[in-house]
Amino acid sequence: MTYVEVEKISFRYARRQPRIIDKLSFTMRKGEIVGILGPSGSGKSTLLRLVAGLEVPEEGSIAIEGRIIVDERTCLDAEKRGVGMVFQDYALFPHLNTADNIAFGLHKLKRADRNQRLREMLELVQLTDYAQRYPHELSGGQQQRVALARALAPQPSILLMDEPFSNLDANLKSSIRSELRQILSKAGMTCLFVSHDQADIEAICDRSISIV
Length: 212
Fold this sequence. Notes:
It is a single chain. This protein is of the alpha/beta class. 32% of the residues lie in helices and 25% in strands. It has six helices and nine strands. The chain has helices spanning 44-52, 98-103, 111-124, 140-152, 170-187, 198-204, and strands at 2-11, 21-29, 33-37, 59-64, 67-70, 83-86, 158-162, 191-195, 207-210. The strands form two sheets. Strands 6-7-8-3-9 form a five-stranded parallel beta sheet, with helices on both faces. A four-stranded antiparallel beta sheet has the order 2-1-4-5, with helices on one face. The radius of gyration is 17 Å and the shape is globular. The relative contact order is 0.20.
């Protein structure tokens, strides 16, 4: 059953420029991890921004769970789309510890529910013992797990990951790949994963889509 449907999406940054994305279509099942593979400048990150609501397509439509989030008549605000995102630089708040970074998006929950969800996320990413540490006290892999837990905590409909390994050294990549795959699978998360590295896609994703 289709969970995410991207239908003939097109986008260009300026009117006289060629389209960076031209009539792209694909679907995703619930819980599926799909890789977006392509060279720099091919529109991989732009696609994530279109799904997240940070850019508006020239034409086409995107639906999640049967709900249109953007088409020629509709454009839901980013905060109403139920989308989580992990950026290349993780974008952690340096003045907040691990627990507070993860709990940042849970302000609408009652305190007891917020604390319960925080405990679940710390356990999921195996950072319970690091809850009081600040980003500068964590390794690159640990910082990535904090960013992942923060994105998963509000239980988004879909998670978008944009080149999440770009700041990690090669020795760390292999262990982080298997960790990430396990975390996403355990969470049952539907995920769009952007990378220029075929090895990342093969290790983490159920299938891939190439854009050029």
